[in-house]
Amino acid sequence: MRVHEFDAAAQDVLPPHALGRLADWARSRPADIALRHKRRGRWKAWRWADVAREVDHLAAALRQHGFGPDSRLALSGAFEPTLLLLALAAAAAGGHAFGLSRDAEGAGLRRQLERLQPSHVFVHSREGATRVLAALAGTPDR
Predict the structure, then answer these.
(1) Distance CA 23, CA 32 (A)
(2) 97 in Cβ contact with 122 (< 8 Å)
(3) Local structure of 107: helix, strand or coil
């Protein structure tokens, strides 16, 4: 028996029909809760209409930064609504979103970036941004 390692980072993080489903739910159930997330001890909830509106705003912001049909967005950070909304926005702008390990450093991170070839990167923390910038520059961390 052969075991193959699944490389989730090399695949788009959204299924092809995700934007269509979001539009359907925003239209049919705009006031229903789509996402709940606890941050710093406080709960926040997004309705389907809120999610659709936020995705539109983020897609417009990505386009202002040159994101388009051939663009690739690497996302790194804690799995929370921000990353999901950005992945949906990347798809809405015509591009693709990919996961980037938030724990990767040095040569491992450089290999991920070389494999993914992102045109844009979103990193959720300063430390993560420092690691990504160092990997992009080809310099050792710290």
Answers:
(1) 13
(2) no
(3) helix
